[in-house]
Please model this.
Amino acid sequence: MGRVGFKGVTKRFGDVTAVDDLTLEITDQEFLVLLGPSGCGKSTALRMIAGLDEPTEGVIEIGDREVTDVEAKDRDVAMVFQSYALYPHMSVRRNIEFPLRSRRVAHDERDRRVAEAAGILGLGDLLNRKPAQLSGGQRQRVALARAIVRRPEAFLMDEPLSNLDAKLRVQTRAELVELHRRLATTIVYVTHDQVEAMTMGDRIAILNEGALQQVGAPQAVYEKPANLFVARFIGNPPMNTVTGKVLAGAAGQVRVIAIPGGEIPVTEAVGAAIARLGLDEVIVGVRSEHLRVGAGGPIEATVSVIESLGHERHVFCRLADGQPVIVRQPADEPPPPEQAPARLTVEKVEMVHLFDPNTELRIDGAQ
Amino acid sequence: MSTTDVAVPTTGVRTAAPATTRPRRFGRRVREATLGYAMVLPSLLIFGAFIIYPFLKNFYLGLYRNPPFPNLPKKYIGFEQYQDVLTSTDFYNSVKVTFVFALLTVPAGIALGLALAVLAHQRLKGIGIYRTIFSSTVATSVAVASVIFGTLMNPLVGLLPWLGLDPRPPILENPSWALTAVAVTTIWQNLGLSFILMSSGLQSIPDEMLEAAEVDGAGAWSRFRSVTLPLLSPTLFFAAVVGTIFAFQSFGQIDLLTRGGPIDRTNVLTYFVYTELRERNNPGTAAVLAIALFAITLVLTLIQMRVLEKRVFYGR
Model:
């Protein structure tokens, strides 16, 4: 069984805490993406699963056994490195069969499994080449073949697509998802690229400064970010966030947040939650695709620049106090005039995200 | 005329271009060649004065036999002296001693340097102190190394009496052990350089490659044999070639510790050249020996490059 578990895992390098009290359960056959900015501790977490770094505190489990003190070579995981870490002096065949040789797998069985892995990844014609004679994409496939030939309990992948060009990355992304389905094995995948995380993972675990911020299905994380960091990190363009004043009605109920140049409505449940928390200010977040720009609307703004991406436009606006706001507009709608006043509308009140400015946590109607 | 003019596909320009550019190109080539030779000239002069001329002069000296008494003219005998010296028992003995000396010092020096480099290639507190200690012999002259080991092997104040072992006959005067004793001194003296070379080689191997091998299930020895050693092969090859050349040029420690004895058991070629020249005052024989030493070193290096280099992996 290929489950992987972190239980209260902390990793310190001197005074620096790379991973802080991480508790996370990765289920068998799951594709979990560890996502976060550079230095957030995601690679350290992966290296601790591999056994390349030792936790300062806590327990790591793979399958049914605790592996915290087990050496990397005995953990039965396979890892694909960012640089692929192919052995440059060995042919593709020798690279792929290296894990089998290390485990003293019989010659015939070795040949059969190398042929099978090479067949899955389309490396049949390249087996006698050296890594230096391969393209980036081919090297990446060899690294994958070296991982799958082992049939380990879990695959660990440390930004394996980051050295590929944009086109190949998109293609390989889909191939990795297919491979995951075909192999039906647990994959823990580290990336800083939220598009990779959104498109590939069954679940995403978002880390920042060593701490786990949120775990969930990509769409759920996108739609309901647990805090301001996740809200701003997930989504491209990032979520628009501005600080707004809470406007209480006569009976104390909150239905509207005042932002520079206008007002944003909130649902009754969220308004009640704000009232319960007794906040005067909140951080308002609206995704760019949930805003509309036009001649009418409750929020004053000025259109500064329009970027056309072919299928859609990014309309860069400024609120009355100069804060930037991005609006995504479908290409079939007429573009607003640049360097001119415009008005913004939030499509639906349910699309407004609110965060406590003190804790930066999401304010949810269900609270 | 600009390059654009040449590239424009109009008939007039095309036909006119070669006529005007050829003399200019030729002139530029001459100027560049002159500048190139001018820049190489200082090196050529130094090489000519200190390498090529002495080599030719040496060859010339080998053609003359020295007179048995001073102030008599030396006699041209052609290649007879070459034949005499190169077929002599003393020469064969000296070649044998030199090869044994190289075999004792080079592999052991590389192996020990590599072992220390592997030990020091750890992320541990205070490892810098060990690295400094291990590399310190690089700053030790051959004279200092010889004095240290001469003292350690001294039958009266050395290590053997201190350990309670019988120092007779003294190691440096013992025909069975003298060459080994000088080899140990040489290994120790060269250990710093070997350690530094191996350490730099180890540092050039990406950590990820060894980590990949570890995750792939390879134990420490397997990682060393299958990943570290092949990637270290350019460094090992360099150390083997340079170490062999150094071994063939060893002189100081022989002169200070054994003076070629006992009974020529440490009479390596360089020391043989020296004794022929200085003690027997026989520049002709010394010149032949020097040419032979050069030829042997050259051939050996070429063989090493042919045989060993096949197992060296340079690419990444």
